[in-house]
Amino acid sequence: MNKKIFKWSIIASFAGFLFGFDTVVISGADKTLQELWHSSDFFHGSVVMAMALWGTVIGAIFGGIPTNQLGRKKTLLIIGILFSISAAGTALANNPFVFAFFRFIGGLGIGVSTIAAPAYISEISPAKDRGTLVGLYQFNIVLGILCAFLSNYLLSDVGVNAWRWMLGVQIFPSVLYSVMAFTIPESPRWLFTKYKADEARIIFDKIGSKEDVQSIMDELQKNSSNSASHENIFIKKYRFQLILVFLIAAFNQLSGINAFLYYAPRIFEEAGLGAKTALLSSIGIGFINLLFTLIGVYLIDRLGRKKLMFFGSIGYIFSLSMVAASFYLGWTGMAVPIFLFVFIAAHAIGQGAVIWVFISEIFPNHLRASGQSFGSSVHWVLAAIIPSMVPILFTNFGVGNVFLFFAIMMVFQLLFVLFMMPETKGISLEEVSEVLVNK
Question: Pick from 105, 124, 151, 324: most CB atoms within 10 A?
Fold first, then answer.
């Protein structure tokens, strides 16, 4: 693997670390903030805790605009600045409204990062390594989550203002990321779409890829000549790609992954575990997620996206069905945690490793950011809706029935993988786009 490409991919994928860290770090301040500001359950949940999530939705919907207009590199710089502002602002906030505002800023950074980072990495990567390199973004998300849990634990005893340190410490990786982002070049494929072919060629030469630079430029020229400047992702020509992106993003959340991650301790307690055991089981999930994400990133360019999604779907169906059966049949002890560990492993090696890679591959260069934005928006809107319904669904329909619903949805995902999902392993971005347009 080319060292320069690997270095630039690591830097860009670090946006995922900030994404994961920012998402989870609030958990350490949850109860303290509610007591400090005497907030009602509704206000605390919907404003203080959830404002970052709505920022993520807005960032995902509109993040394609700066990614397209300003470029991938400048957008990555903006992401680092947003996370830095959010970390400083939340740490210094003295009322819930100011706090929520700065959490919203951080959410914008998360939403935009799911567009700009995978797009940038996919556009600088050779076809044979693209899955692994884009997969580094997901690996960094999981790593950021683990580091946030560890940071919160280490800072929990620093005094009454421990929550400020928990939230403020994120400014260090955020500033570091912004500085590192200055050192990467712009995406050559984005430069080409802006009629800067000479600059694009210079960067391709710097990469020193074994792929023939002239061949890449010829493919870009051919792809560009077949593309109209007034095109958008919603025209009939790109309907198949749009359906693919919608389905993979929707199935990601219909697996119940975010609902489970948000409510893991509650689910374990419903299964009969004590509070301490439930918390310990939740920490174990973080390590399994990290391990199998790493395995998925390693395998994605060896086995392909479709095979990983197939294995993940089978793991989903088995584990979710067994969790549902555990609640129906009253199985106690470690049955539910073990099946949910399998669920996390299935997610990490399948959807977790594939989603951001696949979405970044299937639209042509001039529409890639718009396609990323659409897929990310579907993902985050459902990520906002489904977890918010979980407590109500558990109460009214029962935990077993909720997990059975998720298992049935994964049967549909398996059918999607078998009969609709194309394999994009080892194929250039231009070839992928051309093949799918002709479907």
Answer: 124
Type of residue at 148: A
Predicted pLDDT at 271: 73
Q: Tokens representing 99? A: 């706090």
Q: Write down the pLDDT at residue 228.
A: 61
Q: For residue 182, count other CB atoms closer than 10 A to its CB.
A: 11
Say which residue the tokens 């970390």 belong to. Answer: 87
Q: Of 3, 71, 157, which Cα lies nearest the Cα of 368? A: 71
pLDDT at 154: 84
Closest CA to 290 of 246, 341, 331, 245: 341
State percent of the chain over pLDDT 90: 62
Angle of helix 368-397 relative to helix 239-254, nearest 10 degrees?
A: 30
Could you report the per-residue pLDDT of 309-348, keeping only the tens digit for each? 999 999 999 999 999 999 999 887 788 888 989 999 999 9
Q: Are 67 and 118 in contact (CB under 8 A)?
A: no
**What is the rounded average pLDDT of the residues 103-127?**
95
For residue 406, the one-letter residue type is F
Which of these, 389, 391, 309, 413, lies nearest to 353 by C-alpha position? 309
CA dihedral 421, 427, 429, 433 (to 10 degrees): -50
251, 408 contact by CB (below 8 A)? no
Q: Which of 242, 241, 261 is nearest to 253 (CA)?
A: 261
Residue 219 to residue 151: CA distance in whole angstroms:
47
Other residues' Cβ atoms within 10 Å of the Cβ of residue 309: 26
> How many CB atoms are located within 10 Å of the residue 347 CB?
26
Q: Which has the closest alpha carbon to 47: 99, 93, 115?
A: 99
User: What's the average model confidence in pLDDT over 170-182?
Assistant: 96
Q: What is the C-alpha to C-alpha distance for residues 194 and 188, in angstroms, rounded to an integer?
A: 10
Q: CA dihedral in degrees (348, 350, 352, 355; nearest 10)? A: 170
- Alpha-carbon gap, residue 430 to 223, rounded angstroms: 6
C-alpha separations of 206 from 126, 157, 159, 283, 416 in Å: 13, 49, 51, 43, 40
